[in-house]
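Field reference: sequence -> structure
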Amino acid sequence: MEHAIEKVFGQNEIETFDFSYKIFKNCSFIKSTIKSKDFSNSVFLNCHFTSCEFIDCNFQSTVFKNLGSWYDCTFKSNNFLKTVIGNIKIEKLMFSTNNFNKTLFDGTEMSAVVFDGKIDSSWFYGVSSAESLYARDFFIIKKLKPLKKPSINFEGAELNDVVFSRGLDLSNIKFPDKSHLKTVINPLQFFDSFLNKCRRIFSDKESKDFCREFIDRSLFNTDSQGMPMLLIDLKTFDESRDTRVQRIVELLKAS
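Structure field:
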């Protein structure tokens, strides 16, 4: 593995440093304005950004993990395409008009975070995708890990095919008021009732089986276990030509 860079970066050094294709460990960035820098394809391990402003930077395919923190920072007009933001802590942060596409927030802790602008085809996970959803102890063979309860404001954001899953409590998240975003409270009870409605609409066994499989696969899958609230983006089914899917979506809108 390439030797990791460990240091505190000041404003003057940031201006001339090449941050792409490198490994950073235990680094700090404090009270700096960072414009038009390329951080792509780098790995940041336990690095800390405090009171910084990032403008028009490239974080494509960059990975942040092994703890670390972003505190009291602003990110404006940056590229987060295929970025992995892992088990770090993000607090008092503003994301404004960035490019989030195929971005993974993978076990990230977030408090007082605001998103403004488009977020496309991205994932917010409470438990990292590399970990099991279950914890083991001496008395219980397997139980779900505690839920993370992020505090996030998406009211000024445009969410398109964004997944919130794997051990999240969404009750402290403010979502945009859009007709295609369906919030489901107590999903286990909701989908039991919803499946009964589907059975009344579809008379044949094949369609009834399809409804159950569609719910289990697309609406309430194993990654959603234990979550008291779900967010479903109904637009993700717009291109389906299956009339059964269209009827299910219409029923969801009315429920």
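Note: The chain has two domains: 1-178, 180-254.
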